[in-house]
Here is the input.
Amino acid sequence: MYLINNHTAPWYYFNRCANYFLPVIAENDIILCYEKPVHIHLKHLENTIGQLPHYLELNHPFLNNQLNYQSSIKIIKEKYPKERINLKPWGWSRELIKLNNLLSNQLLSVTYNTIKILNSKLTSTYLREVLLKNSYQIASSIISTNVKTLQSELKTTINDFKSVYLKDFLGVSGNLMVPLSLQDDIEIFIKRKKKFFNNNITNLLVEKKIDIEKEFSLQFQFIDNQGHFVAITGLITSKKGQYLGNIVNWKNDIDIPSLICDIKPITDYILDMGYIGNLGFDFVKTKQGQVKMLEINARYTMGIVAHHWVSLLDTKNPGIFINTFFKNTSAPVIDEILMLIKKIEISQNCKIVLVHYVRHATSQSNHLITLAISASSPSKLQTALKTIFKTVSSKSVIYKMVKNNSLF
Here is the structure.
């Protein structure tokens, strides 16, 4: 934290995620971004949020995914020459820690090593096996190998598990997660996945594939030497495991108090590590009715983003948060989307906010849409989504899921 005009204010550093934090930041806060929303979108957000924070554009300081420190520092220092800068990003990386250290004389409250350890699937697997009941376990194996020996290692494991997911220790949002079964030709598979594997020693989590009924997360905030439960959020993913959104305030049969009690040994462990901030526990419920723990995400998760946005619209009614890329050679412009939203809000008596809409000039490129919707019933949510995505992209995964009534 630092002072700007005698106000204590956190900084946020995002690219296309700039608006995720709007429900929880003050009007004197500053968002660092590549480009701020267009005027009509700012007005729409202002109608929902109220007074918006200032957006400081960094003129694309990233080059080939590498942060251009000097460019960023120059822009920030020119705008705020006398202030001490303390970044608060989506999640800490070595690059952002380096930038923070160049701009601020305030040390981070959590070390990069702590963040990396807690976000590793190796840590999640270890804590699950050591600290939780047998009912929460998922059969898994750790492979530490290289491409030359990977084939034989995988054959052995797949023969035991039949069908598996290969997961990189630090893969997120479905990235670096690959399904594999006995029917797959492992040699061909490895050749196709060269980007996933490298010639050096590769650490992989091999996890037995289980029949899943639903995925959900418990959102926590660690502060003042306590782990506070914030919310339960349902997870929406594609068949390939890619993140599509979250469900909030929905009717569920999860025994939350018992679950919180059962994972207390892990929350105590996290507190002992000195972690401060938001953290999500991911779980699955199998078709047999068992709850299994998947992993820990020590960052400001999409689940907590969804919770804050939906709660901003309504704290009791069911809500949904959608964040998805789509293709459409004639994608509607933002004006059309906002007009459509107004009509749906009236017809379905619901509340909708367009969080992000990134429409690329190249028609074949992936466009991005992020929405938060709250309505009195799941059916109204589905109708609202169906109407929006019929216009946005009737070929999108979300549209197909809504059409098949498979979201709730």
The chain has a mean pLDDT of 83. The longest strand covers residues 212-223. The domain at 211-308 is CATH 3.30.470.20 (D-amino Acid Aminotransferase; Chain A, domain 1).
